[in-house]
Amino acid sequence: MNKRNIILCFLILSTGFVFAQTDSASQKDKPADTAKVSGFDKFNKKMEKLFKVIPVPIISYSSEAGNTLGLAKFNLINLSKKDTISKPSKISAVFTFSDKGRVMLL
Question: For a Cys-Cys bond, which of 34, 71, 98, 106 suits 94, CB 3.0-4.6 Å?
Answer without folding.
Answer: 106
